[in-house]
């Protein structure tokens, strides 16, 4: 069974998709761009401000699902310019401390609304058993 996770503390979907879907203890968070949920507008500033807003949006969805950043096992980061990689990493590291999730980062030709960054995440409830 799948459960749709939505919160007004993260931007509403700008297309035919859900903010997140949970199934069998796994939460799939759609790519988040740096939209302020209160205004519906892209945040002002550069990559640091945008990455922070994206990660705050992800946090709001995690909380709505009853999770936190520690439950995230995989992210995919999309950057409009790989020159922003280091600055994005600085912000990202503040949200994923200790044991960060697996991650892939790609440069893309364009992101919705002209955003500099988009991040999607996968989170899992519970703890893993040692192999």
Can you tell me the residue ranges where pLDDT is under 50 for at least 5 consecutive residues? none
Reported for the largest beta sheet, the result is:
6 strands, mixed
Write down the overall mean pLDDT: 94
Number of helices: 2
Q: Strand order within the widest sheet?
A: 1-2-3-6-4-5
| Rg, alpha carbons | 14 Å
Structure keywords:
alpha+beta; 60s Ribosomal Protein L30, Chain: A; 22% helix; 28% strand; globular
Question: How do the helices and strands line up, and which of them pair or pack?
Answer:
Layout: E1 2-5, E2 20-23, E3 26-32, H1 47-64, E4 72-79, H2 85-95, E5 102-107, E6 117-124
Parallel strand pairs: 4-5
Antiparallel strand pairs: 1-2, 2-3, 3-6, 4-6
Question: Would you summarize the structure shown here?
Answer:
The chain has 131 residues and is an alpha+beta fold. The chain has helices spanning 47-64, 85-95; strands at 2-5, 20-23, 26-32, 72-79, 102-107, 117-124. It has one domain: 60s Ribosomal Protein L30, Chain: A, CATH 3.30.1330.40.
């Amino acid at each position: 069974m799948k459960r749709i996770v939505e919160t007004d503390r993260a931007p509403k979907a700008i297309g035919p998709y859900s903010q997140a879907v949970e199934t069998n203890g796994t939460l799939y968070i759609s790519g988040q761009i740096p939209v302020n949920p209160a205004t519906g507008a892209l945040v002002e500033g550069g990559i640091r401000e945008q990455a922070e807003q994206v990660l705050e949006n992800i946090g709001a969805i995690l909380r709505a699902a009853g999770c936190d950043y520690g439950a995230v096992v995989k992210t995919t980061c999309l950057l409009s310019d790989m020159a922003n990689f280091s600055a994005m990493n600085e912000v990202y590291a503040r949200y994923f401390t200790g044991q960060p999730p697996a991650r892939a980062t790609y440069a893309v030709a364009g992101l919705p609304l002209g955003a500099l960054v988009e991040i999607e995440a996968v989170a899992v409830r519970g703890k893993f058993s040692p192999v």
